[in-house]
Structures are given as C-alpha cells and as structure tokens.
Amino acid sequence: MFGVYSPGQEPKSYAEMTQEEQAEEGAKRLIEFMQSCPGKSAMAGGSGFFLGGFFGLFMASMSYDVPLGTDSVNSIRDLPFRQQMKIQFADMGKRTYSSAKNFGFIGLVYSGVECVIESLRAKHDIYNGLSAGCITGGGLAVRAGPQAALVGCGGFAVFSAAIDLYLRSESAAPPANDYDE
C-alpha cells in the first residue's frame, strides 16, 4: 500500500489486518491526505466556507436595508408580518450562502497555490505566502482589468505577509528565563 517494504515483507491486505492495524493504516492514510496539497486545499476551502457562512449570517442579520429583490421599504412594510419574516430569512440565507461560497473559494485557491509553491521551492518561508497572496488576489481581480489585478495582487500579498508574520511571532521560542540580560 503506502510506504517502503523490504524484500520478503509484503504488505498485508486489509482483510488480513487486525482491527488495530486497520485503524493505524486508516490514520496514516488520513494524515497523508491532510498533508497533501489537495487535502490542505480541501480543509482550507471547508473552513473558509464554514467561517464565511457564519460571517455572512452575522452581517445579514445586522443589515437594516431592504431585502434583495424588493423595490422599496414601503412595499415590504405593507406585507403581513409572516410574509416580511419569510422574505427576510430568505434574504439572509442567500447572503449567508454567497459569503460562505466566496470565503471557501478564496481559502481553497490560496491554500492550493501556497502548497504548490512550497512544494516547488522546497522551502517553508514567508515568500510562499507572499507569492500565493499575489497570485490569488491578482487572479480573483483579473476580470476587472490589469489595474485591479495589480491592486488585488498587492493587497492579498500584504495581508498574507501580515498574517504570516503574526503567526510566526507567536510560535517563536520563549526566552530562556526572565533573569537573562
């Protein structure tokens, strides 16, 4: 299956394994998938979808304007309360799904691009995030023209660098003790 086997040591079939060996093999495969570029991209896309949905629901619930698809404030005020609520919840659902879809897509693309760049460079440093941010931001804005793509590239790269620097600062080794000078 996965791994290197010495001559004479053949991998067991799944049916020949004990329950513990099957669980261990399943865990190994899951970890290998999660460490692969498709696995990282899928996890980032799923996380982005979930967090984007939460963010979209919050923002839609805080919105005091007229729901999408209605002409004016007066037209919705004239409806019965139950109909008003139905329109409001339908609007919240559309906004939540739209936000979730956008965040999920951005997470999927950014994570996939960063993983591919890291694999090609065989290094784990801040330049992977900068490059992935630039490619993702520029790619998302390319339909709006070259100026928008350039701004998207710069904006995503700066945001990515800021997040990377913040996360790296939290993982730095603590000082040996407080008495060292």
TrEMBL record:
Residues 1-21 are annotated as: Disordered. It is a multi-pass membrane protein. Belongs to the Tim17/Tim22/Tim23 family. The keyword Transmembrane helix applies. InterPro entries: TIM22. It comes from the Eukaryota. Its main location: mitochondrion. One of its GO terms (molecular function) is protein transmembrane transporter activity. It is found in: Mitochondrion inner membrane. The keyword Transmembrane helix applies. Component of the TIM22 complex. Keywords: Membrane, Mitochondrion, Mitochondrion inner membrane, Protein transport, Translocation, Transmembrane, Transmembrane helix, Transport. GO terms for cellular component: TIM22 mitochondrial import inner membrane insertion complex. It comes from Pichia sorbitophila (strain ATCC MYA-4447 / BCRC 22081 / CBS 7064 / NBRC 10061 / NRRL Y-12695). GO terms for biological process: protein insertion into mitochondrial inner membrane. This is Mitochondrial import inner membrane translocase subunit TIM22. Essential core component of the TIM22 complex, a complex that mediates the import and insertion of multi-pass transmembrane proteins into the mitochondrial inner membrane. In the TIM22 complex, it constitutes the voltage-activated and signal-gated channel. Forms a twin-pore translocase that uses the membrane potential as external driving force in 2 voltage-dependent steps.
